[in-house]
Protein 1
Amino acid sequence: MNRYLARRVKDISIKGNSDVNAIFEQMSDSGGFVSKHLADGLQIICDMVNDKQCFKFVSFVGAVISTGLRGIIKDMIRLKVFDAVITTCGALDHDIAKTFSNYYEGDFRLDDKKLADSKIHRLGNVLVPMDSYGPLIESKMQKLLNSIYREGRKELATYEICGMLGKHLNSSSFLYWASRNNIPVFVPGIMDGAVGSQIWFFAQKHRDFKVNLVRDSDKLSEIVFDAKRSGALMIGGGISKHHTLWWNQFRGGLDYAVYITTAPEYDGSLSGALVREAISWGKVKKSAKQTTIHGEATTLLPFLFAAMLKTLKL
């Protein structure tokens, strides 16, 4: 038989008693566009988690923390599915804001001029009252930074700032669970957001207070050089995805890699680049189990996580 015709496409059949794992199994054989990659992603993630010699990263963009997906990311960290987090400053902003206030359902087509008049920010179809964001984050961060400074801590890596911040949040927070489980959270672009701005404002009056990104690099180098194998679930692109790939090149690349994105690859962007493109840079191994899932993370990840819970018996 022609090697290209080794596996036939099978129709998916869903019954009233079909569970999520049975559906994923059928998707693996369906040959159906993104569904095949989604099923492959589940298998790769489960293989990665079951590999006890694999150090596991999760990276994500800040915007998803403004949505209900925050709960799933929090639960993955609570259950210690991953060993380290790489994210953006926006994730810290939204985690703080949602710990102490509420975001609301909106619509992509709302009138932004009217929202501005009503003192409401719009993030896609999520509405963020201004009082729930800037002023709240300023209050919480200045209190934390003053406390840290009084303790004599004047130079901190981002993972140290995140660890301390998590201790002041509650169990709805992914930072809380990362701190409690000793899972480091790295924020390479920490100045790009409200938390970063508050650090800058604090430093204006305390010129000896500094963020030490080199210390982050020291910690990441220890992780990647000590890891027998490494893997990553990357949710969205940008700096969080790139930092994950970048550091793993120093150990010859990731052994497992799953990437969820809505970005196209034809503009040459990092966010649109397929995981397999990273093979050419040595950031993902040639032998790696890897896939790119094209789709919107807040839609896909709940189903992936539900299937992970059953498969891994978490």
Note: The longest helix spans residues 33-50.
Protein 2
Amino acid sequence: MFRTGLTLIMAVACAAQDVPPPPRPVDAPPSPDSAAKFLQDKLSSIGRVSYNLTTHNTKTGATTGPVQAWEEITRILIAPRTCELKVQWDSNGGNSGGTFFLEEMGNAEVLTSQDFLNRSQPGVENTVSPVVYSVSLPGMGDFKARDQPTANQIANALRQVVQQCKTPPPASAGGPGLEETLSFIEDKLNQQGALNWLSTVSDTVKGTSGSPTQMSVTVSGVTGDPRSCRLTYHWTKIDGGKNNGDSVFALTLRRVEKLSVMTMEQANNAQHAREGHPELVETLSPQMYELVINGAENRAWYFPFADQDVANRVAKAILHAVELCGGGKEPF
């Protein structure tokens, strides 16, 4: 087996160009999956966990319960090769679930469910009877078990699976390695500083045009982690002199499915159309460019650029990093 060579088509100002991600190698050896199979079987066998729940609001003094509460995992699938955990829960409060990415999970912790609820619900004192246990998953929720030994088994298996998905990818056989590639991306993004432009929005139906608005975006603190195949960065947006966004984001390279370099006018007008306002047409001065990255579970990341060549070079570097991390859509 061999991988098909990829050609990166550089964007031009008048048209957006998609940068296709590399396919996953179909001949790659499978990831160790014994812990994943044990974890999946263990969670599937738990069934319904029931308990009595009493809640006391420390601010209002109101007490509710005890009420009969229950939770059950109705579907669980752990795919160690793609580092995905798909789960569906049914409970007295309704249904929930989704797809979670193992390399993004924090360390699993075993608590009593009472302690888990009290930690996650400030201002509310919960009493759970009889005692049941929670395997706490930062940013996800918890898996419940009737006894502590079972909860410990689940937590240990989960830690192994997560650790496997955080194992650094193998060194590149040719071309820049992952550390060198991430360092290039860091430098190019951090060196840009604040990007400034004027934005004018016109309504093609009403025939009106707004006043130019001063815009500014700064992407800073870009840091690549070869171990988790992630880029973290700080995003600050100033809209008409007001701070309109100050957040920290993480780009998970394994989850990238599509990259596109286009003018920012194209990106913004496409967003207006998606929001149901195709009549709004935005023009920028000076012209700016944007790298749009789409990922699994409808995720999206955006990087602005003043220079088209830099935008294309960063897109090419991120494409290479995705390939080194084993990202991209499934081949079939």
Note: Helices lie at 34-44, 113-120, 148-165, 178-190, 264-274, 308-324.
Protein 3
Amino acid sequence: MQIYVGNLVFTATADDVRQLFEPYGDVARVHLPEDRETGRPRGFGFVEMPDATEAQAAIGGLNGTSLGGPQLTVNEARPREERGGPRRGPRW
């Protein structure tokens, strides 16, 4: 199950997030997206846990807690929406 983690402090590392989730079960992957232009963390991330029961326990146990900053938002990740915005470049 993919889990969304919001309100991460910019100094949080993938290892920090992994250690936060591991008491709840096996953590298969942690991904902390970075800004394309600056390379700085974007303040959110995704955790993949193979066992849905463990993932739900992590969501319930960690939502509203803190990792050295504001309260975390922890919930099941939603599928990424398609971006159907305007095209770049001139229109002919």
Note: The radius of gyration is 16 Å.
Protein 4
Amino acid sequence: MSGVHAIQQPRISRMRPTQRMDLLDQIGRELQQRFTFSEIDEFLSACGIAPPKEYNGPNSKWVFAKFALKDVADSRLLEIASGLDLEPVVASKVPALLPRNWQTASKLKIFISHISKDKDKATRLKTCLSVYAMDGFVAHQDIHPTLEWQVEIERALRSMDAFIAIHTKGFSESIWTQQEIGFAVARDVKIISLKMGEDPTGFISKHQALARRNRTAEEIAKEVDAILADDARTADKLAAAKKANAAQLLDDGIPF
């Protein structure tokens, strides 16, 4: 742990809010995997950071670690990441493992899992989510012809902030959608199931699904926004994305 202090910090002037949140997420997940709660306290102390005395959040080492580091300077976070042998995504302007359509996005990254015959529904939901500073990944729309499709899907799954599954008839029979769900479960990202003809199965069957109930895509998108704004894994990122998106609209001089 003493090596944390000796690591040379990467050269970067200032992190954007989304970069800082990504780094906090990366460190939090690494501490969650390696240590117990008491060991995280010891690690923080060894880094010269006082563990929080008052923490009323969920019983999650990942959330606890992010809470403890939320006020730490950017340069210190980079040192901690290096001490954990992490390669922060802020080390470059465009992370190499992002799918092509997400490389310049400041919005919340949403992977929309669907079967091919219902790609229009996925695309429609993506359009409605964009109003809430979310950028959906729809494989049948966002993979460029010159890129290997499976690599782009894997990149989106590795870098997504949240996962939406559109459970239309035939969804549970697709090998690809079931693998995508497994990826989302393993990464512990927020998963939202949209019931449109099928009930969720397998690992996500225990969670209550959103029923369409004849609602429009706009209404579904509004509920998705409320859910993600209330989840500890996505709330801060979504708020930052909305702020950045609003600033971008003002910079562009586009009335809204």
Note: The beta strands are 108-113, 134-137, 162-168, 190-196, 210-211.
